[in-house]
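Example 9 (inverse folding). The structure is encoded as follows.
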């Protein structure tokens, strides 16, 4: 009989693969569930010692119901859908996969930069309508010596620099947690947010979602951007105020946008942003390649398995829980 129960909350988002075998090695039964709301998550995770999570919200109420849980393993870098203080207070270890999808998300950011500024989707739509007229793409400007502004200068943004430099961009970045010593080897100038908004021809968002970054880009910030500028977001949707972005695009205060993420996902069918032809959308798929998702699943399962073995995980989010973790109390190791 298995010693542990491990529940995956998002089989409908990323179908389970190698997790079952990895967790079986530590005596855990692996159950793949489809949790689309809080109630479904609570029901599915009853008696779970490990919760593996992609997109279901692990709220304080969910955590309160996790009486036996030792670890929440997050599929990905961000942990904004997990109530970290509640988990920490409950002695639950949180782990993630912080070295995930650098190449994939930076590739997607670059593709949205190209598609939006070169107006690829608008031109494709017109050709399908039988309209063959390059003049309808005007104006388009060359990238050479344009300014690409990065909001957030973590690993994904740094990977994007390597891909954007050959196009001739001058690159600046805003990140209050990064030093000049870090950005200098990349040939990237660190500036304040106000300067980045005013100077950039294209802005690409790579910040995590926190209380500080929620609606970081709102009406006031959009008004500071050049009227010829584009906004690309492969970070988190709520970093941008969607209503303010719609007005800025509708009124021509900025030229266009490329969005892999939106404030509400999936968006409501009547979201006015969806009516604009100067926005390129992708369905929060920036992290996806077959190779990246397989590695993600392996590392998330390995993180959960480590805790069930009585070891702290390689990627430990809430290290302040160490001394009072349920793992130490139950397994007596670590």
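The amino acid assigned to each position is listed next.
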């Amino acid at each position: 009989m298995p010693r542990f129960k491990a529940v995956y909350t998002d089989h409908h988002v990323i179908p389970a693969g190698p997790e079952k075998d990895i967790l079986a090695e530590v005596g855990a039964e692996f159950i793949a569930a489809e949790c689309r709301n809080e109630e479904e998550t609570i029901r599915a995770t009853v008696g779970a010692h490990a919760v593996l999570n992609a997109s279901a919200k692990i709220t304080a109420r969910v955590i309160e119901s996790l009486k036996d849980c030792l670890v929440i393993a997050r599929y990905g870098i961000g942990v904004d859908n997990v109530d970290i203080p509640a988990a920490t207070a409950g002695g639950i270890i949180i782990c993630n996969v912080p070295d995930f999808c650098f190449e994939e998300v930076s590739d997607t950011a670059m593709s949205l930069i190209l598609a939006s500024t070169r107006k690829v989707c608008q031109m494709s739509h017109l050709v399908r309508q039988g309209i063959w007229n390059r003049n309808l793409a005007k104006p388009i400007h060359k990238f050479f010596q344009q300014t690409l502004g990065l909001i957030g200068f973590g690993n994904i943004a740094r990977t994007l620099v390597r891909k954007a430099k050959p196009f001739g961009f001058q690159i600046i970045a805003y990140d209050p947690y990064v030093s000049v010593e870090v950005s200098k080897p990349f040939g990237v100038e660190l500036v304040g947010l106000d300067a980045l908004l005013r100077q950039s021809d294209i802005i690409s968002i790579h910040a995590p979602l926190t209380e500080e970054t929620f609606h970081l880009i709102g009406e006031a910030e959009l008004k500071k951007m050049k009227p010829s500028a584009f906004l690309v977001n492969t970070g988190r949707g709520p970093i941008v105020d969607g209503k303010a972005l719609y007005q800025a695009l509708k009124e021509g205060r900025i030229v266009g946008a490329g969005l892999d993420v939106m404030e509400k996902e999936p968006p409501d069918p009547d979201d006015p942003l969806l009516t604009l032809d100067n926005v390129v959308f992708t369905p929060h798929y920036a992290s996806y390649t077959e190779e990246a998702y397989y590695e993600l699943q392996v590392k998330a399962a390995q993180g959960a398995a480590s805790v069930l073995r009585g070891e702290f995980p390689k990627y430990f989010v809430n290290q302040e829980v160490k001394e009072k973790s349920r793992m130490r109390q139950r397994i007596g190791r670590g």
